Sequence to fold (260 residues):
Amino acid sequence: MQAQVEQWLKEGTVDLFIGYKKIDGHVMPHFFSMDNIDEVKDLVPGQAHYSLEKVATKVAADHPDMNIGILLARDCNQQALNVLTIWNQLNSDHIKTIDAFEDPCPPEQAEDNAPYKQQNGLGKTLVPEDVEAFDQPERFSRWMYEFSKCMKCYGCRNICPVCFCKECSLEHKDLVGTGNLPPEIPIFHLVRAVHMAGRCIDCGLCEEACPSDIPLRLLYRKVNDIVKDVYDYETGISPDQSPFSVLGEKVILETTPINE
Fold:
């Protein structure tokens, strides 16, 4: 891997390689280029859960002609790359990758045995079918319990490899009120769930980042199940544009009163 990256940099195949380097005992994202080619010997695969492909989108936005190499440490990193390419956030002609899969996507979850959560919330080991076994009032009650723990830290959005909107709906005052904690529920999480339709690759980073232990994967898996059932579209695998990508040349957000 190190020899491959060094060769790419010297030959000009890539101008920049985004990988991992151990710094003070911690595996951290790092940029490798001809300016610091001697550091390539410190490139490590690691099991750190960073969305390096999202970092690449930031670089590509500022330098669209730059050839970028990316270390894919988890199998879902490739799916994220596919989504970002389909949504024109990355140009595949300017991307080179090295596979170094060391960790599954998503990581296995331990059974949540907390009695109160079992009685009132939703465990991370559940699948959408398990939740649908509850009647509608109980499903609503359990989801509201989970959403009520949210502190609106935006960790789920910030870590997500396929969140790339320049203007985030979660910060639009007409959708999500500002200054209130917990945020307005369930609108905050429903807005994000809608945006995950046709995008979520089930990497699990949102759950890892969430300090409130909300089973976000469960919500987004349900959304993607609907996308699969209705449109026969598998996010990160289907080569075509997401069925939700046809938005026209200009999108205007207008508020519409909700009839009670």
